[in-house]
Amino acid sequence: DVGVTAIVAPASGMNQGAVAPQAQIRNFGSSAQSSIPVYCWIDSAGTRVYNQNVIYLGPLPAGGVDTVTFTPDWNTGPAGNTYDITMFTALVGDVNNSNDTTYGQTTISGAVFSDTIVSPLATVTPTLDGDIQTAEWSDANIYDISDILGKQGTVRPVGSAVLYTKHDNDFMYWAVDMPAAMARTNYDQIGIYIDEDDNDTWNPDTSEGNHWFVWLNQDTVIYRAWLPGGSVVMFWTGNTGCQTAASLTSGHMQFEMKVAFGTPKWQYNVNPAGDTCGMHIYALDQPGDNFYGHWPTAMLATGFNNPALYGPLILSPFVTAVKEKGIPGPRWSARLEFTPNPMSDFSTVRYSLGQQARVNLGVYDASGSLVRTLVNQVLEPGTRTVTWNRTDSNGRRVANGTYFYRLVVDGKSVSAKAVVLN
């Protein structure tokens, strides 16, 4: 009597990429078992996309538990896809088939790990109801802020906490998805700390600090002003341009939030047209102080009140989150695509023109500075490709980080984010 008791991998939420599926098996019987067949099926809308089995040689003693790993790795599909997972044993002579099989699901978030968070210029204003809808956040940048290094005390798997970020001229918009949080409980919260002038210290005038976006029998925002030395002053923000909404509409806990730009202490006194701040964020689920999210990933949890340890948050003046987008116009069209992303050494950029036009295609860094011009000429209609070899205009190899392709066609432009990694 041997069965699968848990799906170890894939997790309920994960990023795009490859993963080795893993099953936890248990011998429920009274004698050791060997040569146990274990199966893994992964289905997408009824179509089997992964079908592998492995023989666990054993012996697995009575009451014993072990983990089985399937090969080859499973390569996920696009962000937003949800897959059904079935793992089961098929031991000949098994006396209790009811405990052989375990079912699960995984959703691909499309988030990336990064040491810099870039907030793009929003094209869609989200409805803040705690339900993260794809259409409302399709223009956001998406980052995995899962505490994968366990800096808050417990190592959390990829996909435990996913951050969405964007802004317009009036508000900074945030959303956090927490697939492992299945109930809404008092003191469930997202904490976002902002060093507005990015000088690695708190200002003495209570104008910098953090917001608690917290559930306290209702959606509540509390602003905490931090002072040099670590003391804190608290403000209930009320109707001051801050808002939060927590919901289980998706089947698990999600937060949507916004903070107005402005000079009041509990608003963000930064330039939405392009600015850099220091930032720390955590995602906490109760009961039990379950910190699912923590960023910067390598920052010690004890450094939460020290902005010198925070990561960079860049407010980009560009729409940067769209990988492919048509440039609108009644008489002509253009498209911008590129692969691979993330890139290591080379990226092939493809663009299409609907009619003759002057074309400028450049690579920009996260601050909006031009890194290299790839195309600058008048071209006939058609599809063309150009390769960027990860160098700047002086032929120097650029560092890891976030860059942007910007295609300008007869004065109309579209931008797309590229991640450069080793």
Provide an overview of this structure.
- With 422 residues, this protein is mainly β.
- Strands 11, 15, 16, 17, 18, 21, 22 and 23 form an 8-stranded mixed beta sheet that branches. The protein has a 5-stranded mixed beta sheet with strand order 2-10-9-5-6, with no helix packed on it.
- It has 1 helix and 30 strands.
- The longest helix has 4 residues, at 134-137.
- A hairpin with a 7-residue loop joins β24 and β25 (347-353).
- The relative contact order is 0.12.
Mean pLDDT, nearest integer? 86
Class inferred from helices and paired strands: mainly beta
Could you list the spans in which at least 5 consecutive residues all have pLDDT below 50?
A: 321-332
Cα(first) to Cα(last) distance is 47 Å
Number of strands: 30
Rg measurement, Å = 24 Å
Indicate the overall shape.
Answer: globular
The proportion of residues in beta strands is: over 45%
Q: What can be said about the biggest beta sheet?
A: 8 strands, mixed
Task: Describe the structure in brief.
By secondary structure, this protein is an all-beta fold.
Please describe the structure with a list of short key phrases separated by commas or semicolons.
five-stranded mixed beta sheet, 422 residues, single chain, eight-stranded mixed beta sheet, mainly beta
